[in-house]
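I hope you will forgive my troubling you with a question about protein structure. Could you please explain, in whatever detail you think fit, how the structure tokens follow from the sequence? Thank you for your consideration; the sequence and its tokens are set out here.
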Amino acid sequence: MSWARVTRSGTTYIPLARWSISLDGNGAPADYQIVVPSDHPFWDTIDSNGYELQVCDSDGYTVISYQLSGFSYSTKTLAIQIDNYTAVAGVQQIWLYAGMTGAPTGASVLTITSARSGYLDQSAPALPVLLAAPERPGDTSAAQRVSKQAAEEIWVTLDFGPILVQKMVPTGDSTRKFAAWEEVKTVVYAVYDDASAQAAMVDATSPRILEGRFVRLLIKAGTTATNYTARVTVGTTYPDNQTGRTLVRSFQVNVYTVVEG
């Protein structure tokens, strides 16, 4: 997706870094608050006044108005707030940029009420990581599988990167900041036993979209010696916030509690 170019007071800045924000959306206009962890690399990039940052929409460059709450460079505390933003009923990705040397502040003064949560997740994908490839025609069960014991809660990450559309750029283009043209924007998921959804095996607010290509999900509970199917539905986006594709990927969840004997 496009890397932001942020114009302030007639000068255009290209930020040095960006990070995924996952919003816990409800499908309606709402206010959001994103707490920046004190150990986040944001603090290695931002200036001491908190001026050189920008929040952008899922397309990577459409700016979103924001305000800063409780900013302290010395104690590394900050909550970023946005208002009246419509995120899908599920989890939606937007972006935080920082590192625009000399930029004046871009913060607004907003009225925030009953803010929903957004998350800056620093994690890198950990096993199991599944390639989000389509199933073979005619298959009646998902080819990829993960296993867990009934009492376990596990993270499962799907990598959509190889199937997302990339940019065509001239060879050696020194202005190239990011190769992706299409990125994951939204995600919802469910786990099924045959056709019956297993609400106890999912956490609707747990998914995280990482760097536009990875989707991380929590799988929990289940009955031992039972095979389930997880179904993940993502929406993608193209530049100018165009609606992209809907992709549905499945994997088996094999639950079996090991008993010594």
User: Anything to note?
Assistant: The chain has a mean pLDDT of 91.
